Every structure is written in C-alpha cells, then in structure tokens.
Automatic annotation (TrEMBL):
It comes from the Bacteria. Residues 411-523 form the Peptidase U32 collagenase domain. PROSITE patterns: PEPTIDASE_U32 (PS01276). One of its GO terms (molecular function) is peptidase activity. PANTHER family: 23S RRNA 5-HYDROXYCYTIDINE C2501 SYNTHASE, PEPTIDASE U32 FAMILY. GO terms for biological process: proteolysis. Pfam families: DUF3656, Peptidase_U32. This is Putative protease. Transmembrane segments: none annotated. InterPro entries: Pept_U32_collagenase (IPR020988), Peptidase_U32 (IPR001539), RNA/ubiquinone_mod_enzymes (IPR051454).
Length: 675
C-alpha cells in the first residue's frame, strides 16, 4: 500500500514533549552502529575516561565514527562522563568534553556538579542515574541549573514519576526500561569502596550485591543461609510503556554498556517494535529519529542473559523482585533427562523447542537448589519423532552434581541464535517520495523524506519518445528506485513528465545519485545541535542546606557549585575517607525483611502476629565480610551499614604518596583541614 506523501513543514513536526526516544547502550562504536541499525533513536557510550564503566572506554575517533552513522538517521549520541572527579581530573575532563563536542557528540551524561563550574562548550547536559533523582524538588533543581534530560531513579512508581513530570516542564524525563537492576539507589552505594577500594561512583564496582549471604537476627538465629539476598531480578518494563508515557517519560533507556552485540541487537529491536506499536495507536506521539528497521529475526528478551524479570516498583512494591537463589542466567526450558550413561546423556526436548547445537550450554538445579551449568561438546539427534538427543558434555559426567534421570533442563546458550545475531540482522531505511518531472533542457528529480525534508537535482539530457510507453515507465521506476546502497527506501515513485521518456540508464543513475546526495546534504543541515539549556538566574537554592557524604562531593568545584546554590554545610565524598566510622554503605528500596515475610507492615492486622514482628536490625555475612541491615520503615527503606576496611585506607595512602613522588599529586575535596 502506497503511503501518502507528507506535507512540507518549515518547522519541527511536534514539540519535544510529544517525542519518544529509545535510548540504547553501546560498549563500543560497532555495537552502537548496530543499535542504530536496529532502531535506537539515541545511543549512550563511554568516552576514553570518566565514564562509570571501568572497562568500557572508547576513543574520540571511534565515537566520531558512531556520530556520523547515527546522524544520517537524525539519531543522537550521548557520551557518559558520569564518575565523580578529583580536582586533578577536572582539567583533563574539560579538555575531553571539548574534543567530544568537536566530534559532534550531542549530549553529555554527568554526575559531578563540579563540571558545571568549568568552561564547557555549548553541549547539552543530561543528569546521570548517579544523581539519584527521586523527588520533584531534586528534579526541578537540576532542570533549573541547566540539565535538559534526566534519568529518574529506577525505584519510582507511576505516581511519583507523574509528580516529578509536573514540576519539570522543560526537561525530558528518562527511565530505565530493561536490564540489570542495581539494588541500591544509584550513587548511594559504597560497599565496594569500603571493602575493596573500588568505587562504584568511579566506575569500578565489585558487585558485592551479587554474593551469597547468611542472614541472622539480633539473637543470632539464621534467617536465610547462603542466599543472594541483595541480588535482584532484571528490569523489564515491556508491559508498562504506555503507562510510563502517560506518567511523563519520554526517553526509554536500556541498561547494558557491558553487554555484547547480540544483547543490544535483540533488546533494541524488542523495544523498537513495542514503541512503534504504541506510536501507531497514539498519532499525537512521534519518534525522535527517522527511518524504520526490518529484522531477520524475531526479538525475544528471554533469549539474553537475565536473572528473571520484574517491573520493580513501577506498579508498587512487589514480593518477587529478588533473584535470591542465583545471580546467574538459568535460560529457557529445554526438556528433561531420559538416560544417564557412562560418557553421555540422552534428553527429550519439550514440544516446540528448537534443535540443540554443538557448544550449547544447559543448566539444572541440584538437590540443594543450586544452579549447575553444563556446557555441551556435541549434540546429536537420535530420534527425531520423539525429539530425543544424545549429548556429550564438556566435562566427564561425574563432575555434574546430582545429574539424574527425569531432571528438568534449561538452555542458557543457543549457538544457532548467537550465530544468527553475529551476522547482519537489521536494515534501517528512511522513507522517501520521488517525483520525476520535465525541465526545459532535461529532467528534475525531487526527493522528500518522511520528515518533510526536500531536495531537487536536475540533469540536462536528451529526451526521446519511447517505442513502448508501458515498458518505458516501468524502466524509469526501476532505475529511480535503485536505492540499495543508500539509507533510503522509496515509498512512492511518481512520473510527472509529459510522457515516460526514453532516457539512458546511465543518465538516470547519475540523476538519482545527485538527488540522493542533495537530500543527504539537506538532512545534515536540518539536524540542529541539541540546545544547551541555560541555568536560571539568579542561582536557585538547592532543596537542602546541608549535604552529607551521600552527595558525592569529591572536588572543590563541586563544593563551590553547591555553596553557590545556598548549601551551608558540605561534607566530602565517601571516597575522600572522612567518614571512617559506621556508615550507610548502601541505601535501597529493597527490603530483606519484606522479602523474607518478616516486615511489621506485613504482620499488621494478622491475629497472633501483630506486634511480635519488629523492624530490628539484621546481620548479613559473606566469608569475613559482616554488614548490618537497618530498616527505616517510614520511607520503607533499608540501610546496609558497615565500616571502611583498614587496608583500603592504607592502600589509598600508598597511592597518594606514590603520585606525589611522581610529581602528579592526587587532590580532592576534604571538608576537614588536613593534618
């Protein structure tokens, strides 16, 4: 069916508040290019330094290559510069920001307010998840100091999101819709630094939340043994996109700057299809970039690594948000064991399960409920009618604990799926309407893209009446429609000449190429830089007049920023090592008492139980690591409390002395005078 030609517009089609953005992650530029190809409206990627992912840095030249590809579709590239910075890192960060701006990057994602005190280029600023945006007051402040887009805390429900949206009419609200969930409020976790010296706020988290812990109460009784009580299922908001739009979310963010190519392709395509379906139902909404993607596969988020799924707190507190048994990927149901032999096993597949492959990986639960992985060396079908396969695992069968007949199996690596996503799996094209018309000395070809951008190319050429009118028109359409090496696809080709002339194919090809080049140029001019929002003057006051270490102030410029906005008392960041006693090393909306059905609110009204269950502290232990859980029931939050290890302080002192000896001292903000 031929789509109607769009009307030409001199300005934007819709205001920003009605545009939806699918924001995908990229570990490197090649993955970012595939994210764009698979439908992303924007991509976020780490630069060479300061990107909050220790092993996911990219050179400026690679980012420029990604920018060039994305901008062809009017997709945007955001660079994460969202660690907290020492004073000696501010100038390198400033120079890097200028380089990124020169490379065409559209926006920076930042956490450290000290950056706002520097001489920055006119590049748009986005507030990182590490800024911990949970209240309308915090969001309004960030809007008023110049942030154009902000990602809200994952823990918010729809009502809280709506309340924030009402207070920030100028900012675009962003929300994580898929991927791993950090159990702590972002920016409010210091367990990794306290125990290992690796700071989550500086992109080097040791992921203590994924470890197994033994939980004891105040009397020393074991409540849970070797359970991953701080490990959460993965975020999946597939069912909530329309509700999030209604609440005010406009940017839908996929987690995963450490994730591989297959994950980014699959999850981006999944949410692209969901959002496109929503856009078809809601004509008042539009997407922020151009073009439509076609896929060689059917997206399925369950195919990628996941710990089960939850929509977390979007629809209120849920009882099944934890991945307490294992933080690993169990995979999809496969079948069951029918025979265990000396060097192989036989498996019968469930109905509808795709065939097994060499090098697939399976999982099962042992008798203690622990997940056991079983990579497969060879897989051979021995009875197609009954779906029975003979499998030879990588290791000898006795190595697999509790492997037995009738055991249920799952598959967490499907080599056929992986190989399919390793190949080109999407094509993204921008729709164009083409019109061929006469000029005084030849032909003109007009192209109008789906956004209304127009370009015209002309060619002086001899026109001859054709011998066969029908064939001549068909030939003209065929030659003009050869857009295969471009980013365009013809929605309609109109022959508006006096008659379908005979024109040499070489001339038509030259005319088409010239028109495409003109349209590329017109589209490049139409893509305007994202504006850098100015801060409100005079400086608006910060919602609080006192800041603890939880504000992550790690440099003097950040201190000056908050002081300029009315804060009277400003403590230094936890990484400055001034909070040496017991401290909240993690603040989280997840509650272990609730998850273990030991919450006083759960017991309220239950006869014989009410009043006997109290929110007393608990202790969690992993090896020699012991932490205290304290429960703040009014906001329904949990604090994980502990101290910084002496060896972390000693290592920090050694590093400071080493840097000083090398002539490049480390300098950072301290609230107390240095002895």
């Amino acid at each position: 069916m031929t789509k109607p030609k769009p009307a030409l517009r001199s300005g934007p089609i819709r205001t920003r508040t009605h545009e939806l953005e699918l924001l995908a992650p990229a570990r490197d530029a090649d993955i970012g290019i595939e994210a764009v190809n698979h439908g992303a409206d924007a991509v976020y990627i780490g630069g060479p330094d300061f990107g909050a992912r220790h092993n996911a840095g990219n050179g400026v030249a690679d980012i420029a290559r990604l920018v060039a590809h994305a901008h062809r579709y009017h997709a945007r590239i955001f660079v994460t510069l969202n660690t907290i910075l020492r004073d000696d890192e501010l100038e390198p960060a400033r120079r890097l920001i200028h380089q990124l701006h020169d490379a065409g990057v559209d926006a920076l994602i930042v956490q450290d307010m000290g950056l706002l005190e520097l001489d920055l280029p006119p590049i748009q600023l986005h507030a990182s998840t590490q800024t911990d945006i949970r209240t309308p007051e915090k969001a309004r402040f960030l809007q008023d100091v110049g942030f154009s887009q902000m990602v809200l805390a994952r823990e918010l429900d729809l009502g809280q999101i709506r309340a924030i949206a009402d207070q920030v009419p100028r900012a675009t609200l962003e929300f994580f819709v898929h991927g791993a969930l950090c159990v702590a409020y972002s920016g409010q976790c210091y367990v990794s630094h306290a125990h290992t010296g690796r700071s989550a706020n500086r992109g080097d988290c040791s992921q203590a939340c994924r470890l197994p812990y033994t939980v004891t109460d105040t009397q020393g009784r074991i409540v849970a043994h070797e359970q991953h009580v701080l490990s959460l299922k993965d975020n999946n908001q597939s069912a909530n996109l329309a509700a999030l739009v209604d609440a005010g979310i406009r940017s839908f963010k996929i987690e995963g700057r450490y994730k591989d190519l297959g994950y980014v392709k699959n999850i981006t395509a999944h949410y692209r299809q969901l959002l496109d379906g929503l856009l078809e139902q809601r004509p008042e909404l539009a997407r922020t970039s151009h073009g439509h993607s076609r896929y060689t596969f059917t997206p399925d988020p369950d195919r990628n690594f996941n710990r089960g799924s939850t929509d977390y707190f979007v629809n209120g507190r849920q009882s099944d948000i934890g991945a307490f048994d294992t933080p690993k990927h169990a995979g999809l149901p496969l079948g069951w064991v029918t025979k265990v032999a000396r060097d192989h096993l036989e498996v019968q597949l469930d109905e509808g399960v795709s065939p097994l492959n060499n090098n697939d990986a399976l999982t099962y639960q042992d008798l203690q409920g622990e997940l056991v992985g079983m990579p497969i060396n060879t897989a051979e079908c021995v009875d197609a009618a009954r779906r029975v396969w003979r499998l030879v695992p990588k290791d000898p069968l006795p190595a697999y604990k509790d492997l037995r007949r009738d055991l249920a199996l799952r598959r967490n690596r499907d080599m056929a799926w992986d190989r399919m996503l390793d190949k080109p799996s999407a094509e993204r094209r921008i729709g164009v309407w083409m019109s061929l018309s006469d000029t005084t000395d030849g032909l003109a070809l007009t192209l109008v893209d789906e956004a209304g951008t127009e370009a015209v190319a002309t060619l002086a050429v001899e026109r001859q009446p054709p011998r066969d009118l029908a064939r001549a028109e068909s030939t003209l359409r065929e030659q003009l429609g050869k857009l295969g090496t471009t980013v365009y696809a013809a929605h309609e080709i109109r022959i508006a000449c006096a008659q379908p002339w005979f024109v040499p194919a070489s001339a038509l090809n030259a005319l088409r190429r010239a028109a495409v080049e003109a349209l590329d140029g017109a589209r490049a001019k139409a893509l305007q830089p994202l504006p850098r929002d100015a801060a409100v003057a005079p400086p608006v006051p910060y919602p609080e007049d006192t800041l603890s270490y939880l504000a992550n102030v790690y440099n003097q410029k950040a201190h000056d920023f908050y002081a300029r906005h009315g804060v009277q008392v400003i403590e230094s960041a936890y990484e400055s090592h001034e909070a040496l006693g017991e401290a909240s090393l993690m603040i989280t909306k997840h509650c272990v008492r609730w998850s273990l059905s030991l919450c006083p609110k759960q017991a309220k009204g239950v006869q014989g139980v009410q009043g006997t269950v109290r929110a007393e502290p608990m202790t969690i232990r992993h090896g020699d690591e012991v932490l205290t859980l304290r429960f703040d029931c009014k906001p329904c939050e949990m604090h994980v409390v502990g101290k910084m290890k002496p060896n972390v302080l000693a290592q920090a002192k050694r590093e400071e002395r080493q840097r000083l000896a090398e002539g490049v001292p480390m300098t950072f903000y301290k609230a107390r005078p240095t002895a």
